[in-house]
Amino acid sequence: MKKLLMAMAAGSLTLGLAACNETAKPMEGTPEEKQSDLTAEEVYEKALTASQEMKSTEASVEMDQKISVPSQDVEMNTHTNMDMEMTLDPVALHQKGTLTLSDASGEEKSADIDVYMTEDGTMYMRDPQGEQWLKMTGAVPGLDQLTQQQPDPSEQLEQLREYAKDMKFEQNENEYILKLTADGEKFNELIKQTLQEQLPPEALEQMSEDEQKALENMNINELQYEMFVDKESFNMTAMNMVMSMSVEDQAETLNIDIDSKTAYSNINGIEKIEIPQEIIDSAVELPQQ
């Protein structure tokens, strides 16, 4: 889990470091006394250090996703509003929000989401159709192993620097702002390599043949990031992402478009996430697949 957070909070920053020695361009209205002369590389190093020291965080996520299969005239739109709490030692997660689905006809269906997850991968989820809680043991295999390996900053920097196609490094009064467009063709190779390196072996083993083929046939057509880093703490305060990808499956093409906005807050302010005892006692355990 910590590796995933660090990938969001700092690893992504390396994509924009094609101009590592440039300082951030002040945005209009930024007071001169608040302007910083740190370079993009220096900000990255400090952001990576801050992410390594992260113990917990809250996040608010708003995401729009469109999945379409042009050959079948199929389209499904998903709008997600989610608030999340996460701790890293021990690994625990609580997320709560709303998921709205709509098809090409415009018909909408909404569901309330409430999920707890523990370090061993056990998930407690409230049934969207009622008040019953469900328990799934080992829902995310090897979740605890994602905290063990730390990335080497210099290796990440060298590995990812070449994947940036266009980058802007700016600053306002309180934040550094990194805007970048990744080279989709090159970035495809990195995504596949990173997934294979970071996913626990048991998770890879449990992937079906179709899922493995989908990963091999995945292509990222567009990837844009906009990241905000606090000037004092060097914690990431927000990240916006636009991604367009496609998956080839025999004669079919599945298109996926994602537009997400994430705001981080209360970093290192959560001591513990506890699952209410009444949820543990009343949850109906689902059979493992």
TrEMBL record:
Residues 1-18 form the signal peptide. Keywords: Signal. This is Lipoprotein.
